[in-house]
Predict the structure.
Amino acid sequence: MKRMSLQWRLTCIITVYIAVICGCLTMFVYKNGVYYIDSLQETVDAQGEDNGEDTDEIYISIPDDKWDEFANDFSIQAYNNKEDYKKNSLLISAILALIGGVVTYFISGHALRPIREFSDKIEEVQAQNLAASRIEENKVKELNQLSVSYNKMLERLSDAFEIQRQFTANAAHELRTPLSLMQVQLDLYHSNSHPDNDADTVQMIKMVTEQNDRLNKMVKTLLDMSELQTVGRDEVIAVDALVDEVLADLEPLAQEKNIKLIGKCKDITLRGSDILIYRMVYNLVENAIKYNHSGGQVTVTAYRKEKHVYLSVEDTGNGIPEELRERVFEPFFRVDKSRSRELGGVGLGLALVREIVRVHDGSITVRSNPSGGTVFDVILPL
């Protein structure tokens, strides 16, 4: 159930409060009015049944032969007046409560406008525009204090992101330098023949080469993940053209495993980072190829529905056990560790995909393919 807004909460509370007050006042006035009407009725009845005892006198110029008729009419009129008074009182109370609720709604809306603007400002905050997201001082003391605290939080976040970027850049430099040297040495080694090497040496060199490639991929992926927040996301992306580009780039890998790539994309566009969306689709398709059967196929589908783009990547592989589907997005998690090492995976591809989807305010889910395999469903706003 959707939560009720503060404006509606205030409106409902004050409307109920007004209704209770009006109801209490109505009952009080009604009881008093009925009491006096009933007293008058009793006096009239007593006058008609006067037996000579001392009573409060009432003087009404009515012939004796008309008195019974008058008393009966008076009784009926008194009863009708009480009922009319009751209905009118309840109606007036309801109208007052309704008017009070409407007035409260507009007054509270005006009073809460700064908070709504504050919320809209927060929604626009991104890592690359922290400085532009500061909120000006507010005349309301409480909101002004909130603005000051919010601006200080932005400063701390900006400093934290800057420290993170600096650390990542320095770490990447320190890691890439020895890895590059290792790669150069390995390239020199592979450029020459070594007939005297035994089987153990050849196996060791192969393992070192594979691990060096794996470390290079891991460093690159970690760098990409650390830079997600700083990449602009205001480009207009042609989804069908981007998917075609990804499928063309991965066609050689698909041919190695005899995998058929199929694109079923409508002519749609979305706003975001072209580089990141490309990387997202690339990782999903590459993952589908690597963990597919020889002779299988990978299908990429994209279409628009209302204000969202729905993109799915479907394979015909072994699938993912239901209890592990949510964990596949965790960094360094592998469903089949031995096969992941064999295929050169580092366990960060799907984690990067989830982060890309998250920074684009989208969602990603994984489910089983009815015909076998796995389907990744991505929903992104236009």
Q: What stands out?
A: The radius of gyration is 39 Å.
